[in-house]
C-alpha cells in the first residue's frame, strides 16, 4: 500500500510518540487523519504515524526506524491490538480478579491516541486521535476477533474534538448499565457513560492496597466518585466510612453499590472544600483520608492554576487527618509530573502545619503500561503519607 509522506525538518526522528507542528515541513494534499510515512530532512524513511495538520500534535508515531507491518495498516492494527490483549490475558491475568481493565493504553501500547477498556462483555473505545477515529471499524473488527460476542462502543471526549478539530458524525453504541466485579465488590457500571470510559480502571490496585490499611479505622473518601475506595475500605473492616462527592449521579451509583454489597457507608453530597472547612470548624478528623480529584490540569496553560488547586485541597485534607493517620492523595493530570506533585504536597504540609512521611509512591496498574521516553504515560501519580 502506498502511503502519503510527511517530511521532518531534522535528520532525526524526535524521541517519544508525538511530533509537533514546529518539527514538520507541512505537506500539501495529505488528508487529516491519514496514516503516513515519516521521512527525515534527507528524505530517508524513519517511521509511520497518523497525521493531523489541525492538531498541535502533527504526527502520532506508530513505528520507528525501519519498515514495519504498518505498510499494511489493517493487518498491523489487528496485530497490535491482539498483542495488547494478550499482555492483559496471558501475562497479567486481568480477568482473574476483575471484570474491568484496560486493553489498549494509547502510547503505552504503541497506539498513541487509542484507548480501549473492557467492561464485562463490552469494549469502550475512546478516540484521542482523528486517525484512529477514521480506523474505528477496523478497531472494532480487531476487538471482535478477540471476543466474538462483545459489544463495542466508541467515544470521543469533548476536549479531543477541539484539540483534533473534528466532530464525530456518529459515536455509535449505547449499552445498559450492569453490575460488574472488582476486587470482590459489585459496582453498577454504565460502559461509556460518565467520566472517562465509565470506570476508573487505573486505580484498581490502589483501591485494594488502601482498603487493606483501613481495618478498624475511621475513613474519609473525598471525591469518591462511584465509591471505589470507600467500598474497599468497608470491605476490609473499616470502623466507619464517609464518602464525599459533588456529583449527584455518581454518588447515587455509589449508594447503590453500598446497598448491593451490604456495606455501611455514609454519603455526603457536598463540595470537598466546603466539607473540609466544615470538618475543620467542627474538629472532625479521620484516621485514613483519601483524596482522588478529577483531572485539574488539561495542559501547560492551566498548570499553575491547577497546582494552586492541588495545594489548597491537600492542605485542607491534611488538616482532616488524625495525628498518626494516613493520607492517600492522587493526581491524574499528565502535565503535572511526580516531582512537582510531591513539591505541592510538601507545600501543603507546611501550610497545614503537619509533618508527613512518604510510605509509598503509587501509579496506575500494570494494564496501563508506561513508556520511558514519554513521562505523560505516567499520568496517574499518588503518594501514601504518614501524617503527624
Question: What this model shows, in words?
Answer:
The protein is of the alpha/beta class. It is globular and about 70 Å long. Helices cover 30% and strands 28% of the residues. It has helices at residues 73-91, 130-134, 136-146, 158-164, 204-212, 228-235, 248-260, 272-282, 303-319, 338-352, and strands at 5-8, 18-20, 24-25, 35-39, 45-51, 57-64, 100-105, 114-119, 122-127, 151-155, 178-182, 185-189, 218-222, 240-245, 266-269, 286-291, 321-331, 356-363, 381-387. The protein starts with a strand and ends with a strand. The protein has three domains: 5-71, Roll (Archaeosine Trna-guanine Transglycosylase, Chain: A, domain 4); 73-164, RNA methyltransferase domain (HRMD) like (Transcription Regulator spoIIAA); 200-387, Rossmann fold (3-Layer(aba) Sandwich). Helix 8 (272-282) packs parallel to helix 9 and helix 9 packs across helix 10 (338-352).
- Report on the biggest sheet: 7 strands, mixed
The secondary structure category is: alpha/beta
Question: Could you give the order of the helices and strands?
Answer: EEEEEEHEEEHHEHEEHEHEHEHEHEHEE
Q: What is the number of helical segments per DSSP (H or I, 4+ residues)?
A: 10
Average pLDDT for all residues: 95
Which stretches are poorly predicted, pLDDT < 50 over at least 5 residues? none
Q: What coarse outline follows from CA principal-axis ratios?
A: globular
CATH topology of the largest domain: Rossmann fold
Give Rg in angstroms: 22 Å
Q: Specify the CATH architecture of the largest domain.
A: 3-Layer(aba) Sandwich
Count of the separate structural domains: 3
The largest sheet has its strands arranged as 15-14-13-16-17-19-18
> Terminal Cα separation, in Å?
64 Å
| Residue fraction in strands | 25-35%
CATH superfamily of the largest domain: Vaccinia Virus protein VP39
Helix content: 25-40%
For the record, the CATH class of the largest domain is: Alpha Beta
Q: How many extended strands?
A: 19
Amino acid at each position: 500500500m502506498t502511503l502519503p509522506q510527511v517530511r521532518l525538518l531534522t535528520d532525526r526522528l524526535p524521541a517519544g510518540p508525538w511530533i509537533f507542528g514546529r518539527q514538520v515541513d507541512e505537506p500539501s494534499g495529505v488528508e487529516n487523519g491519514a496514516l503516513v510515512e515519516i521521512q527525515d530532512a534527507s528524505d530517508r524513511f524513519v517511521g509511520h504515524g497518523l497525521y493531523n495538520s489541525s492538531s498541535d500534535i502533527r504526527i502520532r508515531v506508530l513505528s520507528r526506524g525501519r519498515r514495519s507491518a504498518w505498510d499494511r495498516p489493517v493487518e498491523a492494527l489487528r496485530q497490535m491490538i491482539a498483542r495488547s490483549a494478550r499482555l492483559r490475558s496471558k501475562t497479567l491475568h486481568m480477568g482473574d480478579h476483575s471484570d474491568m481493565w484496560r486493553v489498549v493504553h494509547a502510547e503505552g501500547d504503541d497506539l498513541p491516541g487509542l484507548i480501549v477498556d473492557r467492561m464485562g462483555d463490552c469494549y469502550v473505545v475512546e478516540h484521542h486521535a482523528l486517525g484512529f477515529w477514521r480506523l474505528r471499524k477496523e478497531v472494532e473488527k480487531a476487538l471482535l476477533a478477540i471476543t466474538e460476542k462483545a459489544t463495542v462502543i466508541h467515544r470521543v471526549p469533548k476536549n479531543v474534538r477541539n484539540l483534533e478539530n473534528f466532530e464525530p458524525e456518529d459515536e455509535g453504541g449505547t449499552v445498559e448499565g450492569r453490575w460488574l466485579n472488582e476486587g470482590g465488590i459489585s459496582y453498577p457500571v454504565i460502559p461509556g457513560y460518565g467520566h472517562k470510559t465509565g470506570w476508573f480502571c487505573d486505580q484498581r490496585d490502589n483501591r485494594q492496597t488502601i482498603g487493606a490499611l483501613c481495618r478498624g479505622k475511621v475513613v474519609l473518601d473525598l471525591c469518591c466518585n462511584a465509591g471505589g475506595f470507600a467500598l474497599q475500605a468497608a470491605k476490609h473492616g473499616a470502623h466507619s466510612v464517609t464518602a464525599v462527592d459533588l456529583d449527584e449521579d455518581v454518588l447515587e451509583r455509589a449508594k447503590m453499590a453500598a446497598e448491593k454489597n451490604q456495606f455501611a457507608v455514609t454519603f455526603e453530597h457536598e463540595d470537598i472544600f466546603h466539607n473540609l472547612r466544615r470538618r475543620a470548624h467542627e474538629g472532625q478528623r479521620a484516621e485514613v483520608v483519601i483524596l482522588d480529584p478529577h483531572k485539574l490540569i488539561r495542559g501547560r496553560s492551566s498548570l499553575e492554576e491547577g497546582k494552586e488547586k492541588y495545594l489548597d485541597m491537600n492542605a485542607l485534607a491534611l488538616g482532616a487527618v488524625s495525628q498518626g493517620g494516613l493520607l492517600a492523595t492522587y493526581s491524574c493530570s499528565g502535565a503535572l509530573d511526580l516531582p512537582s506533585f510531591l513539591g505541592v504536597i510538601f507545600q501543603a504540609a507546611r501550610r497545614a502545619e503537619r509533618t508527613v512521611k512518604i510510605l509509598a509512591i503509587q501509579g496506575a496498574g500494570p494494564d496501563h503500561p508506561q513508556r520511558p521516553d514519554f513521562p505523560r504515560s505516567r499520568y496517574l501519580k499518588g503518594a501514601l503519607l504518614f501524617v503527624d
